[in-house]
Structure formats: C-alpha cells, structure tokens
Amino acid sequence: MPKWTGETMGAKSWWSQTDSRLLQAALGLAVLLVGVFGVLLPTLGVAGLMDPMDTREVEAEAATRVPGTMTDAVSGYGMTLTGNHRADLVFADPDLGQRLLLALPEIVGSLLLLLILALLLRMARTLRGGDVFVPMNARHLSAIGLTVLVQAVLAPVLPALTTKMLLRGTPMAEQVPFSVTFTGEYVLLAFLVLALGEVFRRGTKLRADTEGLV
Q1: Structural contact between residues 53 and 103, judged by C-beta atoms closer than 8 angstroms
Q2: pLDDT value at position 71?
Q3: Does the residue 85 lie in any domain?
Q4: Domains in the chain, number
Q5: I need a surface site. Which of 60, 110, 112, 169 has the fewest CB within 10 A?
Q6: C-alpha atoms less than 13 angstroms from C-alpha of 196 in its C-beta half-sphere
C-alpha cells in the first residue's frame, strides 16, 4: 500500500508542508516558553539568582482575626497565613529548602509538560513525510498517555505534600489540613490518548500485514 503523499485518489490533501512547518514552529515556541517560565525561572528563584516564589495557596480550616483588618491571619516562623477557606501562605524570607518546596510542584509539572510537547513535536515531524501512521508515533502516543496519567496523580499530591513539609513543626500546621483532591479530567484524557496510541499501533500493524500481501 503506498504512503499518503499529500494527494489521495486525485484529490489534494488539505494538509500542506507549510501547515507542518507552522505546527512544528508552534510546538517549538511552546517548548521554549514552558522551559523558560516553568522550569528555568523557578529554578533560578530556588538558587537565589532572582526573586523566588514566596506564596502558596492553601485550604485553611480557621484563622485568627487580626484587629483592624478585614482578613483573617496567623503569623509566625517567618510566614503568614491570610484568608479564610482559600488562604495564602506567605514566606517573608524563604530559605533554600522552602524555596525548593514552593517551586517543586510547578517545576515538576512543567517538566512533564515539556516531555509531552517534545513527543508531540517528534510526531509533527513525521507529517513532513505525509504519513503519521508509523510505529514510532504509536509509541509516542503511549508515552504521552502515561505522562498525562502521572501528571493527574502528581498535580494534586505534590502541592499537598510540599505544603505539609513547609508547615511541619509550626503552629500553622493545625490551620492547614492535608488535603488531596483528584479530578477525573486528566485521567480520562490519559486513557483516551492511550486508546488512540493503541489504534495507531493496530493500524500500523494492519498496514504492514497488508503490504506484505502485495
């Protein structure tokens, strides 16, 4: 069976080489932006080479009213908890360990997103040959699905764990309960991508068997 080359049964395909280049450029730009703003800048903040993260949004059970203000707040150990149910945990001068714990969820999430974008970019490059149904793309889709599944677990767990570590040994630990809320959207997306990867795998195998009969 011949590969799709941009024309099928005399009809020109809507996808062109220009479209392929634009897609690769868009994915490349996304990789650059995520790498800079999601990994590089937070890492520089952890190292103290630029302003670090100093705030974490948390779910607070209760807080102490501060006279003369309109918000609730608890202070101590170089940190302040302000707000009611959805509160901000603010560090006045976070040390290296605190900076790392504050930035870790964003850095890990961005690294996983970079992996997904890199795999999509490699898939987009196969469009230049006019055929996306290749075994490599089936493997890439499976890897993307597994990465999304890992992200679905880590996205809620990492902030909860790092917040617990940040507050360990302080009176504020009683104000912020350990809470993890999982959502089904990422899990559903992961299984959809894994199913698509299986479709690609079966499609490429079927085509290879068909070509062997010709």
Answers
A1: yes
A2: 45
A3: no
A4: 1
A5: 169
A6: 15
